[in-house]
Write a structure and sequence with these properties.
This protein has 383 residues and is α/β, with parallel strands linked by helices. It has 17 helices and 16 strands. The radius of gyration is 24 Å and the shape is elongated.
Length: 383
């Protein structure tokens, strides 16, 4: 049955691939896909991995970043494959043994023998697990989760997922609910270990003194975002702290704030000149203390998502219990936002309205933090 399914599956994918070739060639002219498409669909500059290593596979930046502490346990004994451009760039900060995962029809002759294959979250590629297992690897799916939103979609294709899970030796799930849903899809040997994206929680360096009243922090802001925050801000909301993402913009933001407060009953100072939060508006022109500021903040307006930057790490303000407001351009941080309950993604013109009703906003909470230890223990069995 599995053999016939593999033949049929490969045949369908081959037909789809042939039909898609003109589109892929056209798409590869886009600078954004200039490396990814040739690598994934034509194997250009995408050589096979060295044999007998620990092969990690993740999709994008967030997933790759989340497993970095796990990968670092194995140093030079690692191969790492990804799907997206941002994932590739992040992976390069971890190891030089990085590849784009090829389209599935190429995997039978591209995959080499590995000791272990560790796949992150929802990367359920049939040929990936089948071929890796047949070539001798122990196969693990980690941080597995079936969300409420996708649950019914998974069930519609339960037969297909049962075929995939036949080739997965062990699954590390985020919760008991996920375990039950995964079992319905054919997964076996499931261990619940929590969400490993929260295995390393934020920490602070210094205990800063919180001022009286509400403290609103605009953290990791980019060009145009400081102006948006200032236009949305009123003195009665509380004190406003602005922390630009890049230090080379400190002078520009300082001038912007000085211009903004002209003719207004607002006090202002730079943190480098007076290390307290007693003014109405404070520009933090010092690096490395953002978590310390989050620890005394009541509300965080998280930068990088009102502009098309991709957002910044929401775990940090959520961990310190700050009510969390962000723009909607969180495409680089979606996987981390999924670790949080109660946050607010708003349009630019809505920011002021949300600041008006701060008392009504709910504080965020993190999903259950996981541990890398059970995964490390399982990997080490097969080395």
């Amino acid at each position: 049955m599995s053999f016939l399914f593999s033949i049929f599956y490969t045949l369908i994918l081959t037909i789809v691939y042939i039909l898609a070739i003109p589109y892929l060639i056209l798409k590869s002219r886009n600078p954004k896909y200039k490396k990814a498409i040739p690598s994934k669909f034509f194997l250009i500059d995408n050589k096979k991995f060295e044999e007998n290593k620990i092969w990690f596979h993740s999709c994008s930046m967030g997933e790759t970043r989340a497993i970095k502490p796990l990968i670092e346990n194995y140093k030079d004994n690692v191969n790492l494959s990804v799907i997206t451009n941002t994932g590739f760039d992040e992976a390069k900060t971890i190891t030089q043994n990085v590849r784009f995962l090829p389209f599935e029809i190429f995997l039978p002759f591209w995959i080499t023998k590995q000791k272990v294959l560790v796949v992150m979250e929802a990367e359920l590629w049939y040929m990936l697990f089948l071929v890796a297992k047949r070539k001798g690897a122990k196969t693990f799916l980690i941080n597995a989760r079936i969300s409420d939103k996708s649950y019914n979609s998974y069930k519609k294709f339960a037969f297909f997922y049962k075929m995939i899970f036949k080739n997965i030796d062990k699954v590390f799930a985020q919760s008991e609910v996920d375990k039950t849903r995964l079992e319905e899809l054919g997964a076996t040997n499931i261990e619940v270990i929590g969400n490993i994206k929260l295995a390393q929680l934020p920490s602070k360096k210094f205990d800063l003194q919180k001022p009286e009243g509400v403290l609103i922090t605009a953290g990791s802001t980019h060009e145009n975002e400081e102006e948006l925050v200032l236009k949305s801000y009123k003195k009665e909301f509380g004190k406003l702290v602005i922390v630009p993402r890049h230090p080379e913009r400190f002078i520009k933001v300082d001038n912007l704030i000085k211009e903004y407060i002209k003719g207004k009953n607002l006090t202002y100072h730079k943190y480098s000149e007076n290390e307290n939060f007693n003014s109405d508006i404070i520009l933090v022109d010092k690096m490395g203390i953002l978590n310390d500021i989050y620890a005394i903040s009541d509300v965080v307006i998280l930068g990088g998502a009102f502009e098309k930057i991709g957002g910044h790490n929401p775990i940090e303000p959520a961990y310190f219990g700050c009510k969390l407001i962000s723009g909607k351009n969180i495409f680089n941080q979606k996987s981390l936002f999924e670790c949080i309950n109660n946050y607010y993604l708003v349009e630019e013109n809505e920011l002021g309205n949300y600041l008006e009703k701060l008392e009504e906003l709910e504080k965020p909470s993190l999903t259950k933090a996981g541990s890398f230890e059970p995964i490390i223990k399982e990997i080490n069995k097969w080395l």
